[in-house]
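With this grant's support, the team has encoded backbone shapes as discrete tokens. A representative record is reproduced below.
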Amino acid sequence: RYPTDMAQRLVAEPDRLAALERYNLVSDAWAAVLAGQSPLADFVNLIRHFGGERDPDVWSSILGPLHLVDRFAPAAAQDGLARLVRDLVRPGFDELGWEPLDGEAERLGSLRGAFVGALGTIGADPEVRAKAAELHEAYLRDRAAVPGDLAAPILHVVARNGGEGEYTTFLNRMRHPETPQEEVRYLLALAEVPHPALLRRTLEMAITEVRTQNAPFLIATALSNEAAGTDAWQFIEEHWEDLRRRFPSKLIPRMLEGITALVDADVAADVHRFLDAHPVPGGDVLINQTRERLDVNVALRQREEPNLPTVFGDPQPL
């Protein structure tokens, strides 16, 4: 944890720090928030200085926490959080553009994808959402129409903002893919569409149609669905014995990794009660680690949710 005056000096000229130092600075600040040693406001004020950042790893340490906070931000904070993301990300994205430039550094492609994903989801950028939908339509006609680094991000954006029409498109593409990678990509996209009834259809497929090596990861993704993740957990409870019989035991802990997104205290308590009563032989260590991360996220929400309308208001001095 950095004292405030030290943090002010460090971020005054971030270009003087190496990329690894900038990554560690942001990661340490977030770790202090998760540990309850620093308020979220300190982290937000710190990352406001990183709008000119161009390292993908540093951006992952910035955007990952914001995706988590977005899961429990109340309506009064949503606009402010989206505005923060746009203010941080849009200048860099406008500089990169949608198309890769001749001779650009290799890692800029992944950075462009991260920018698209952030702007199209938590950033609620209408232009990026519309362009992502347009590019996805082009991709369906010709895979070469979309740069490889953008195929997954634009699908993520379309899925997170999609409905029954998009779901039907994903399902058809999953069943008739051009590559094995595409099959998995569209399979997981089915679990991201934010509609409980559609998610239920997807979960039923996990115990009927989807291959056993993919189905646990589909369910893990469904647990992260912001609109219906709790429904996915209820599905696990209802079908626990079927899932245990169908999936290799080593994949059960991987399936349960998605519970870290269930940041409601009552749901988390139900998760713990159920897993206490239904141990997984050989999976205790990994499952206990996942349960610990769930508790950390729930505690974060309990501490910070009331503060979010203020945190994502007007910028405050660091």
About this structure: The radius of gyration is 20 Å.
